[in-house]
Amino acid sequence: MEKVFVIDHPLIKHKLSFIRDKNTGPKEFRELVEEVSLLMAYEVTRNLPLETTTIETPICSTETQVLSGKKVGIIPILRAGLGMVDGILRLIPAARVGHIGVYRDPKTLNPVEYYCKLPPDVTDREIIVVDPMLATGGSLCSAIEFLKARGCKSIKLMCLIAAPEGLQRVGQQHPDVEIYVAAIDEKLNEHAYIVPGLGDAGDRLFGTK
């Protein structure tokens, strides 16, 4: 899939190993997710447009480059996506943050939307939708559809781990959306959990069950 990018930097691989480990507690888990999100955001934003400007260094005037064009919007999928926001904001502190609440019905496995709050200028921003897990792809496809319905044109998806089934679904329903992941896992099990995965990211972030 040409729109799927695996960010396999050694530091990301190292930290992802501890994120997967069932013995990693909530505090360490949150810190690791934030750190990996920062590292991934460096690559996700690689093609942000630049413009030339002139500044004064302590020595002389010189031309240099700064970001131009659209600003960035970060849209975490509640609740697990919240764990990725602070890492990206450390890299792009001027980004605006919206929230979309989608949960998976345990019987039908279909996504159900229950909350949405977006920046007022969301249509003018480069949108990064974040969620640690891309499993079936249902929730993320629903969130992307909602953003497109609001007029968003430039949308990227950033996840820690993905299942092939989810990648295929997002790729088929939204072929224009670039997908950035730290790892592609083996499959989904009969309960639609990623294998080997990392468990329930929301529960591990917030210490719930």
Description:
With 209 residues, the protein is an alpha/beta fold. Helix content is 33%, strand content 32%. The protein contains 6 helices and 13 strands. The chain has helices spanning 10-20, 26-44, 82-91, 138-149, 164-173, 201-206, and strands at 4-6, 50-56, 61-67, 71-78, 96-97, 99-104, 111-117, 125-130, 133-134, 155-162, 178-184, 187-188, 194-195. Strands 1, 4, 5, 6, 7, 8, 9, 10 and 11 form a 9-stranded mixed β-sheet that branches. Strands 2-3 form a two-stranded antiparallel ribbon. Strands 12-13 form a two-stranded antiparallel ribbon. Helix 3 (82-91) links the parallel strand 4 (71-78) and strand 5 (96-97). Helix 1 runs antiparallel to helix 2 and helix 2 (26-44) packs across helix 3. The longest helix has 19 residues, at 26-44. The radius of gyration is 18 Å and the shape is globular. The two termini are 35 Å apart. The model has no long low-confidence stretch (mean pLDDT 93).
Features:
single chain; 209 residues; alpha/beta; 9-stranded mixed beta sheet; two-stranded antiparallel sheet; 6 helices; 13 strands; 33% helix; 32% strand; globular
Mean pLDDT: 93
User: How would a crystallographer describe the biggest sheet?
Assistant: 9 strands, mixed
Taken in chain order, the helices and strands follow as EHHEEEHEEEEEHEHEEEH
- Please give the radius of gyration in angstroms: 18 Å
E-strand count: 13
Q: How helix-rich are the residues, as a percent range?
A: 25-40%
How many helices does DSSP assign? 6
Alpha carbon gap, first and last residue: 35 Å
